[in-house]
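Dear colleagues,

For the upcoming journal club I promised to circulate an example of a predicted protein-ligand complex. I picked one with nicotinamide-adenine-dinucleotide because it came up in last month's discussion. The inputs are reproduced below in full, followed by the predicted structure.
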Amino acid sequence: MAILITGGAGYIGSHTMVEFLTAGRELVVVDNFMNSKPESLRRVKEITGKDFRFYEVDLLDRDKLEKVFLENEIEACIHFAGLKAVGESCEKPLLYYHNNITGTLNLCELLAKYGAKRIVFSSSATVYGKPASVPITEDFPTSTTNPYGETKLMIERILADLVKADPEWSVSVLRYFNPIGAHPSGRIGEDPQGIPNNLLPYVSQVATGRREFLSIFGDDYATHDGTGVRDYIHVVDLARAHLSAIEYAEKTTGIDYFNIGTGVGYSVLDIVHAYETATGAKVPYRIAPRRPGDIDECYANPEKAAKVLGWRAEYGLEEMCRHAYGWQSQNPNGYDK
Ligand code: NAD
Ligand code: UDP
């Protein structure tokens, strides 16, 4: 019996594959490489010395996706595949709704048809909108401000309706906070195309000389130093959370929501300073205007995941920065040679 991983070639998927293969789990992986490269999968094999079945399939192609179910005994799915850039989702809403929602509908139909009614879904802290307070618990109200966030919220609702209609389903919704860092080997990591939108890949590119300076988006937020505060979590810790979630899904039915963060908030300036200390590299920065839509503070109360899943983040900020730097300095152009 195998676990189906959608979007396995991506940033979080590739790190999760390493954890599952190392734990001896059998994997079947699907990706269409719309935001990733085959090289990441080759490196997963290199790190683990383990093999897996891979299908280059678009989730929108239901017939091709069904072939994966016909050729393998799938017992559960971890569903990473989706588009994730907030700005792009505002420019191309139909692309985002179609890819993320229709892809998930096709997947769930096939999971149900082939008796694999267990899914771990990649949601995001973005579903909490602008939280009334921090730390955030799972029962906070949800809302979003952009099409990307809407797709996450809509998929959460679709999954909740699925469980209502058919109690055999087991659904774990993991609401990720800010995944950063890379595998300690430096062989896999985040490989954004073009100019990075997110803080850490940008900082790494500045630290390694690919970009001149970091623009800090606003220093007048209601935080300890005026710059935005987030809950950064090491991608390997995040990957491990999926192993705990699958083990939990194997024993339970129904739907459950989990915050996957450390519970600690760091500001942009905290990150810059920690990165410099951890790596010895310089990260020149300039203060720039606020980025529209950004919030002051966002960090998790991760106690539910600790209590129910038995999972807790283990890596600290120093390791997150050091591993991000290791990946970036060994692979200055990402997976492109
Ligand atoms: P990623 O873009 O690196 O990985 C997603 C993978 O899915 C890519 O390899 C892409 O090619 C694939 N994919 C997309 N649409 C597909 C389709 N229709 N058919 C087949 N494959 C498809 O992103 P990531 O950072 O690894 O994120 C994984 C998931 O976690 C996403 O759903 C994302 O929304 C969610 N998430 C990410 C973050 C983050 O900061 N990285 C935060 C919260 C939630
Ligand atoms: N940020 C920044 N400069 C950048 C990218 C991000 O100052 O080039 C800030 C951003 O305003 C936010 C924090 O870094 O306060 C994290 O941003 P990111 O886009 O990584 O995550 P998200 O905003 O989605 O939580």
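Two points we might discuss: DSSP finds eleven helices and 14 strands in the chain. Residues 7, 9-13, 30-36, 58-60, 80-84, 99, 103, 122, 124, 176, 179 surround nicotinamide-adenine-dinucleotide (ligand 1) (CB under 6 Å).

See you all on Thursday,
B. R.
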